[in-house]
Design goal:
Blueprint lengths: L17 H30 L1 H5 L10 H29 L1 H11 L1 H11 L6 H10 L2 H16 L5 H30 L3 H4 L2 H14 L10 H5 L5 H31 L6 H25 L1 H25 L2 H29 L4 H33 L3 H23 L15 H5 L2
Keywords: Membrane, Transmembrane, Transmembrane helix
Pfam families: MFS_1
GO molecular function: nitrate transmembrane transporter activity
Length: 432
């Protein structure tokens, strides 16, 4: 990656043309994907920092429900932030927005250092600073809205899977590295350590990413997919797959601390995010070959079974079995992430721009799952002393997602894109 990106936007881009892809497109696409992955990886680390930091806040006399709110709030904010982040690359340009969104990550990193590092910080301030970590959740929506344009249709599953996996592994990076950093330098360092890396990633994006003219579009064109029922059906499936991954990954350190306080949560918590992230591109790869709907349906059924195994492990009060059960759960959620996301370019195959916009909106809604799972765990443990109630609710939701996918995409082989309505003029869209 020694060549500096072109300073002006690329005006001709035809990745589905084999000759263009072989001679020029492939090199540019993979270079941009590499930069996108670096930024998204750091964005996920910032987004999920509080999942580790809360384990070190026990001395502040916070309730279990309060601790889970600190973990859940970044997911909620991240979900809403993903909506403007979806359209931002189309308005400002891929490279410009990637650099800007990377630099914004400095805010929650420094905020955590200031708030969590001071023992007298009020709870409402901790909540406010935790909310700023939601900025890290927005980068993924920008990334997928960009990468969709760079790669040919036949490589969409692999490209989106690698893009997402590189970001998702940031969860494991946080849960593996931050406990070591805190033990050596204190809680404040959990935020400070990422600042120089964020600045380097922003510089790399500036030097090596490109703007595509075909990726630019009026905001109205990008948001029109919100009126399509299929966008919201895909969003529900992504709440079940990615939302579960995010929720379980951020909840696991605190859950291990609650269930087995004598165990070192840092030794186990990172495994979930790691295997789930690595499974995601596998899910996309399988979807490329077997079909996104088929793989998605199968993984939701597998997730239901994994929840039952997790409940059995919790009843056995065995740390090893509990961690193993959660790892199984993460494998299934990772496969589901890749498969469900691969359905987007297939369902919106008639317009690449619509697929990019839908990918961002689906990602936004999907992130709500991280908030819902953490708050459900907090309420369940506070009310019953156990997480079983929450887990059985999740299992019912997975069965519902499997049924939805089958009825919508598989029952009558109805996976073909719905007829495209007559496109209104841009001026009409802007006036709505």
């Amino acid at each position: 990656m020694t060549r500096i990106a072109e300073r002006g936007p690329i005006t001709h881009w035809a990745p589905d043309d084999p000759a263009f892809w072989r001679t020029r497109g492939r090199r540019i696409a993979w270079r941009n994907l590499a930069c996108s992955v670096c930024v998204e990886h750091l964005a996920f680390t910032v987004w999920t920092l509080w999942s580790v930091v809360v384990v070190h806040l026990g001395h502040r006399n916070l309730t279990v429900d309060q601790l889970f709110w600190l973990v859940a709030l970044p997911s909620l904010v991240g979900a809403f932030v993903r909506v403007p982040y979806t359209v931002a690359p189309a308005v400002f340009g891929t490279r410009t927005w990637t650099v800007a969104s990377a630099l914004l990550l400095v805010v929650p990193a420094l905020g955590l250092a200031a708030a969590a590092g001071h023992p007298g910080t009020p709870y409402w301030v901790l909540l406010l600073v935790a909310a700023t970590a939601g900025l890290g959740g927005g980068n993924f929506a920008s990334g997928v809205a960009t990468i969709t344009h760079f790669f040919p249709q036949r490589r969409q599953g692999l490209a989106l899977g690698l893009n997402a996996a590189g970001g998702n592994i940031g969860v494991s990076t946080v849960q593996l590295a931050v406990p070591v950093v805190i033990a050596a330098f204190g809680v404040a360092a959990a935020g400070l350590v990422w600042v120089p890396l964020i600045l380097l990633a922003a510089l790399a994006a500036y030097l090596w990413m490109d703007d595509l003219t075909v990726a630019r579009a009026p905001i109205g064109d990008r948001l029109r997919v919100a009126a399509r029922p299929r966008t919201w059906l895909l969003s529900l499936l992504y709440v079940g797959s990615f939302g579960s991954f995010l929720g379980y990954a951020t909840a696991l350190p605190l859950l291990v601390e609650i269930w087995h306080p004598d165990a070192d949560a840092a030794r186990f918590a990172f495994l979930g995010g790691l295997v789930g992230s690595l499974a995601r591109p596998v899910g996309g790869w399988l979807a490329d070959r077997l079909g996104g709907a088929q793989v998605t349906t199968g993984t939701f059924l597998a997730m239901t079974g994994a929840v039952a195994v997790t409940v059995a492990a919790l009843r056995a009060h065995d740390l090893g079995w509990t961690v193993a059960a959660f790892v199984l759960l993460f494998v299934t959620t990772g496969l589901g992430n890749g498969a469900a996301y691969r359905m987007i370019p297939a369902v919106f195959a008639e317009r690449r721009g619509d697929a990019a916009a839908a990918a961002g909106l689906v990602a936004a809604v999907g992130a709500l799952g991280g908030f819902l799972i953490n708050t459900a765990f907090g309420r369940s443990i506070a009310a019953t002393g156990s997480a079983e109630t929450a887990l059985w609710i999740f299992a019912c939701c997975y069965l519902g997602c499997a049924a939805l996918t089958w009825a919508w995409q598989l029952r009558n082989r109805a996976g073909r894109p719905e007829p495209q309505p007559v496109r209104p003029q841009v001026g009409q869209l802007a006036g709505r």
